[in-house]
Design a protein that fits this description.
The complex is a heterodimer of chains A (111) and B (112). Chain A has 111 residues and is mainly β. Chain A has strands at residues 10-14, 19-24, 32-38, 45-51, 56-58, 62-67, 72-77, 86-93, 100-101, 105-110. In chain A, strands 1, 3, 4, 8, 9 and 10 form a six-stranded mixed beta sheet that branches. The radius of gyration of chain A is 13 Å and the shape is globular. In chain B, 0% of the residues lie in helices and 51% in strands. In chain B, a hairpin with a 3-residue loop joins strand 4 and strand 5. The chains are: A mainly beta (111), B mainly beta (112).
Chain lengths: 111, 112
């Protein structure tokens, strides 16, 4: 099957700085992408999504960028807070196929 | 409140003793699925269901069964659990179409 998510396994960021979490996907047919946040002891929670007809989408303190040319997805978190500590997953959804998840990046906030 | 509810949250069992993990969603979603999460392997799909009485294998179905008799419920059945099924399990539901999946809180299963 297709692989998703050449993540760095961990990322440490100073509180207040911006975080950038990257993800590479391999299925060029994928037309929908999602970022999930998983806090310790909890299930993954939806953060933001983007469809392939867009290259940028903004939410509250988060921005997702999609570069279809190089099959790269990134999640930017502005002014990182202690509550942002979690594992972040990207997921891709090719048409008529199931959602495929990356292995995740653990974000640690340094006080 | 829209949610996916799994039970139990934690379970320790012995090899070969049949068990069922329940999953229920209150969003009237058609699509439901089960994942297992293991260190370094991320989320892998076990089984999924497109609608009532329609189920299909995911990436790692061996040793598992599911049923979908009602739209809201999608139990995961381990007929004869083995230690390699020790894992963290998540149920998820999705509205038909390209939308995000909603996950339950997880079930941590240990098979000794």
């Amino acid at each position: 099957g297709e692989s998703v998510g050449l993540h760095l396994p961990t990322l440490s960021v100073q509180e207040g700085d911006n975080s950038i979490i990257n993800c590479a996907y391999s299925n060029s047919a994928s037309d929908y992408f999602i970022w999930y946040k998983q806090e310790s002891g909890k299930g993954p929670q939806f953060i933001i999504d983007i469809r392939s007809n867009m290259d940028k989408r903004q939410g509250q303190r988060v921005t997702v960028l999609l570069n279809k040319t190089v099959k790269h997805l990134s999640l930017q978190i502005a002014a990182t807070q202690p509550g942002d500590s979690a594992v972040y997953f990207c997921a891709e959804n090719p048409p008529l196929e199931k959602l495929t998840f990356g292995t995740g990046t653990r974000l640690t906030i340094i006080p | 409140e829209a949610q996916v509810t799994q039970n139990p949250r934690y379970l320790i069992t012995v090899t070969g003793k049949k068990l069922t993990v329940t999953c229920s969603q209150n969003m009237n979603h058609e699509y439901m699925s089960w994942y297992r999460q293991d260190p370094g392997l991320g989320l892998r799909q076990i089984y999924y269901s497109m609608n009532v009485e329609v189920t299909d294998k995911g990436d790692v179905p061996e040793g598992y069964k599911v049923s979908r008799k009602e739209k809201r419920n999608f139990p995961l059945i381990l007929e004869s659990p083995s230690p390699n099924q020790t894992s963290l399990y998540f149920c998820a539901s999705t509205r038909t179409g390209i939308t995000e999946a909603f996950f339950g809180q997880g079930t941590r299963l240990t098979v000794v």
